[in-house]
Amino acid sequence: AQSVAQPEDQVNVAEGNPLTVKCTYSVSGNPYLFWYVQYPNRGLQFLLKYITGDNLVKGSYGFEAEFNKSQTSFHLKKPSALVSDSALYFCAVRDPYQTGANNLFFGTGTRLTVIP
Amino acid sequence: DAGVIQSPRHEVTEMGQEVTLRCKPISGHNSLFWYRQTMMRGLELLIYFNNNVPIDDSGMPEDRFSAKMPNASFSTLKIQPSEPRDSAVYFCASSAYGGSGNTIYFGEGSWLTVV
After folding, report:
1. What's the rounded Cα separation, in Å, for the pair A44 and A51?
2. Which residues of chain A neighbour B108 with C-beta distances below 8 Å?
3. A43 in B contact zone (CB under 8 Å)
4. Which of A26, A93, B13, B18 is least surrounded, with the fewest CB atoms within 10 Å of its CB?
5. Partner A contacted by B9 (CB < 8 A)
6. What is the rounded average pLDDT of the residues A1-29?
7. C-alpha distances in angstroms, B51 versus A19, B25, B32, B60?
8. What digits encode the pLDDT tens for the residues B57-86?
9. Phi, psi torsion values for A72, nearest 5 degrees
């Protein structure tokens, strides 16, 4: 079975400070991992993904995430937060060894608030 | 390139009425997903299709919900009869099929309120 956990419902950070949104996963094999962002009254927008290769993945809007196999984590990071980064962030996982299934399993989301 | 297109964006209907939500996936994508988002349950997968064929509908709440994909460029999610607890945001999403690393792209959602 595959699952993903986002341990923090809410993260607050001051503008200009670095931000981290945490995600841990559970899959039977090597995972495919994704981050999405949802702004108010909008759909989910793809930020970045890890499939293979370099553990540090860079994505849209200056975000990056680091795949850590030993800790089964894929935390989202940004060096300097902007007020416009305030949104709901979702981590998602797919088990590539589950034949025929290309669905993603989403976490419960973390609401990021960047304080001016 | 146009993204996933959903209609209507907003719908308010009375309990017992039929609701039909529509989706046009990204051209060339052959996997289509319907999700529901509520405060209580978060993001739930209702059903998904590969090459117009339903693959997993285990998330469909009950017989009042049905989904079809008559061709590669169109899908519907129907609720009949609707109930207040169906009030939610319904997202359609699509991806290419054939590689597990493919990204799923979401539409802007259909905001449904059943009164």
Report:
1. 20
2. 42-43
3. yes
4. B18
5. no
6. 93
7. 40, 12, 8, 19
8. 988 988 999 999 999 999 999 999 999 999
9. 45, 50
